[in-house]
Specification:
The chain starts with 7 loop residues before the first helix and ends with a helix. It has helices at 8-26, 33-40, 44-50, 54-78, 84-95, 104-108, 113-141, 149-159, 161-164, 172-196. By secondary structure, the chain is an all-alpha fold. The protein is 74% helix and 0% strand. Helix 1 crosses helix 2, helix 1 packs across helix 4 and helix 4 (54-78) runs antiparallel to helix 5 (84-95).
């Protein structure tokens, strides 16, 4: 059988995707680097070339999953055809839908609280610069500076962890209330910028 040669980064991503799926399905204790390699259809030596231990593989799989989750939010905040308000609505809708996160059940399980926090913080750290840039663009369209954009972006992304941490779909009343608070913060941000400008 001919060996399939793949780009090293593509192979690494495949191993991480396979690892994340197995860890979510079977739990950390029941997965080995060899099992991930077998499931991915590669030699275990190749898997060990990328990850020298199960813990390194697990850490990298969570990092990659956080990056993938954040990528969806970042693409919303990078879409210049949308207003800031439209971007925030889309991001809020995405963040409050469990089906947007394939391993939500794993991370919301009570025994995985620390992993959920780690994933949430990883997503927030990756999304914050994109939201900051969107806030700055919004201010620029009004000819205003945005000195507080980074601080507001941090408040919005890190503040959203509480909403996403519940483990259940948010009720419509909670969603409306959260949107009102975000709208109030954006309004104040715009008003402060106008006073500074």
């Amino acid at each position: 059988m001919a060996r399939t040669v793949k780009d090293p980064e593509e192979r690494r991503r495949e191993l991480l995707a396979c690892a994340m799926r197995l860890f979510a399905e079977k739990g950390y204790d029941n997965v080995s680097v060899r099992a991930v390699a077998r499931e991915a259809g590669v030699a275990s030596g190749l898997a060990y070339h990328y990850f020298d231990s199960k813990q390194a593989l697990f850490d990298a799989a969570i990092e990659e999953y956080a990056r993938q989750c954040a990528e969806r939010f970042c693409s919303i905040f990078s879409d210049r055809s949308l207003s800031l308000d439209e971007q925030l609505d889309l991001a809020f809708d995405l963040g409050t839908k469990r089906e947007a996160f394939p391993y939500a059940d794993f991370f919301h399980a009570s025994e995985h609280g620390a992993l959920h926090e780690r994933l949430s913080l990883g997503i927030c750290e990756a999304v914050r610069p994109s939201l900051t840039a969107a806030l700055e663009r919004d201010a620029a369209t009004r000819g205003m500076p945005a000195p507080d954009a980074e601080m507001l972006a941090g408040m919005l992304v890190y503040g959203s962890i509480g909403l996403a941490s519940d483990g259940h779909e948010l009720g419509e009343q909670t969603r409306r209330a959260a949107r009102r608070y975000v709208a109030a913060l954006i309004k104040e941000f715009r008003h402060i910028d106008e006073r500074k400008g």
